[in-house]
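Notes from the 1:1 (GR / supervisor)

We went over the backlog. Supervisor wanted to see one worked example end to end before approving the batch request, so GR pasted a single chain during the call. The sequence is below; no edits were made to it. Supervisor asked that the structure be written out right there so they could see what the output format looks like.
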Amino acid sequence: MVGVRIQFPRLKLDRIPDVVDSRIGSLLSGPSRGRRYALTAGSRGIRNIGNILEESRSFFERVKAEPFAVAAMGSHGGATSEGQRKLLAHLGITEETIGAPILTDMDVVELGRTPSGLIAYCDRNAAECDGILVINRVKPHTGFAEPFGSGLLKMLAVGLGKVPGAAQIHRQGPAQMAQAIEDIARVFIDSGKVIGGLAIIENAYDETAEIVAVRPEEMIEKERELFQRAKAMMPRLPVEDIDVLIIDEIGKNYSGSGMDVNVIGRWRLPGMPEPSSPRVQRIVALRLSPESDGNAQGVGLADFVTRRLVDAMDPVNTYMNTITSTFLQRGFIPITMPTDRDAIAAALSSLALPDASQARIVRIPNTLHLDRLWVSEPLLPELRGRSEITVGSSEILRFTADGMLADLA
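Structure output shown during the call:
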């Protein structure tokens, strides 16, 4: 395998506290003394989310308001208050780190209904406060493709909707999901509860590139624009055709589907055509991240996994998330092999290649960090001469005596 470094465009935001203060200040109008504000805290890994929540809390306290964070993650964390609090802690979001109460109750109330009859469910604590500041990263979704992705609108319709809100959205299926999210988000906005949003865009290095203040009345249209900017900054695999993609670690901190379907080119959704690229024949997933708290949602996107990954799964967390999503195939446990070596070898064998030494193999740490990866030598002709790619030295893929990759042992 040959080490490869990719230079992606790198817009990076500095002085995050000052930016957060400025953005929230542009959203507030009128006195805030004594008013209670809910700050949304989701279950996806977002760079600097702890700092952003902490500075948001600090801003509201300086204007004599009473801020608190509310878990806005649908059915994640096993759909329990304790599970959601634990998941937030895995992401570095605790009452101690952000300096504010974190409410993880699962009760919801109805804010209203869409013209088609969909219910806008809202976390009870958020519904009873004076205003909601929606905070989330904008990025492509893993259940639908256009015209926007996962961001402020989804946080309203799915995150704050808890279990019934998430279940209702996913029942619409991939073809209608985006419209349902938009319609329910509009009910939230029309209710007057939402004071605005902080839309976070990250670059291909998992760094904060932009924090954009979004007013309620412009949220639906603005998210479409931000979605295109976020999509352009996403990391991508350097080649289109891959025989075996080895993913060292999957998890909710990398993508809502464990591995980002927009990176691997594989949706596995009934009735939804697979992307035209990249074209990956076999996917091998080796580990489940500790930050996922056992939630292996998306494991079924792989073809081969290790016993180590399966043993790290929490069936309650995984199956609750999978059933609520309605994307059952993504929760199926793939062919499970005892070791890393066995899983990789099985993937190669299943392709029945005439010459395995010519296999087109790519190894990545996860689907979020793609600036440093490994490729097999047959891919080098497609990489050499590209200005954004630096090709390093080659090394043997080394395993321990018990069959685990030496650098992951």
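Supervisor's comment: DSSP finds 14 helices and 16 strands in the chain.
Batch request approved.
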